[in-house]
Write a structure and sequence with these properties.
Blueprint lengths: L2 H8 L3 H8 L7 H13 L6 H7 L6 E6 L5 H16 L3 E6 L4 H14 L3 E4 L11 H8 L4 E4 L9 E5 L1 H12 L7 E5 L5 H16 L7 E5 L4 H14 L4 E6 L2 H14 L5 E6 L4 H6 L4 E5 L3 H18 L9 E4 L3 E4 L4
Parallel strand pairs: 1-2, 1-3, 3-4, 4-5, 5-11, 6-7, 6-8, 8-9, 9-10
Antiparallel strand pairs: 10-12
Amino acid sequence: MNIKKIAELANVSVATVSRVINNDSKVKKSTKEKIENIISQFNYTPNCHATRLSKGVADKTIGLIIPDVSNILFSEMVEVISNCAEKENITILLCNTNGEYQKEKKFIELFIDYRVKGIVYIPGKFETNKEYDFLKEVELQNMPLVFLDREVDGFNFDGVFLDNFNISYNITKEILKNNYNKLYFISGSLDISSGKNRYLGFKSAMEKHKRNLDTYEIKYGDFKFESGYQLGKEILKNHTSDELVIYVANNTMALGFLKILKKYKSKFKKIIIAVFGISEVLDMLLDDENYITCKVPNKEIAEKSFHTLIDKIKNQNKKNIRNKKIFYSTTIIKKGDEF
């Protein structure tokens, strides 16, 4: 027997069970009695770690949820937030979800159960068929939460993001300064807010510059290395011109694309590659290419998300404190003989 099973039997949320266990006066008497009866019936003993957290340790604990610990940008964010937390003598509970809804739900419920002081949350895909009741419970608990890099539709928590639409628009605009016959765009998933906004920025630039549908082709990936590799392979096998112009919506997919490009590179006299976000590794691999990119202020937005959360925690009892969304822009970088 665990707290989740008790919640199912009582037809309430995990957070409501947690409130009863911790003698929260906000729970209705009838609900409290129903939960206490189930606890008594099954001889449930609260998790000692969760109980210890609820009695004081949680005052110095925050939760951090990321979708992919292997992604170098997310790893950098974790490092930055960890360093900030250490300076503030704050403990981080780090959870990796692999972008899966069920894991995000489980970890948010865990944080509510542990009564952490706040959450920095990088969502995976937004699944339209899901209710996201676990985030509604965060709102009901008045628990501070800050979206980082991505957000979930329908919720107005604080957030710190890249200005994905305008950055992608400007990258596309730079590409269009060159004459070309065909432009390929490898997009991230449109179920991820950052992927959707980069796609919309690309589409807006193409429409603004009156480019016909036959002058570009969109392939949909998932921000992972393998999708960049496989979609790149499909493009490179079928592309007949000796000129290649391609825009990849993130650096991890770009690494996959560059790996397969080695096999087909001799086919092309001219190659222009655009990438949303440059890393040191990617910069070295692109050394011989003409490329357009941007320096993503990854560490800055991670640090800002931490301090936004801390400010929210300190001021959560104040009335009329509006949630805010902070957007970071960046400059476009061009390298190579073609520019």
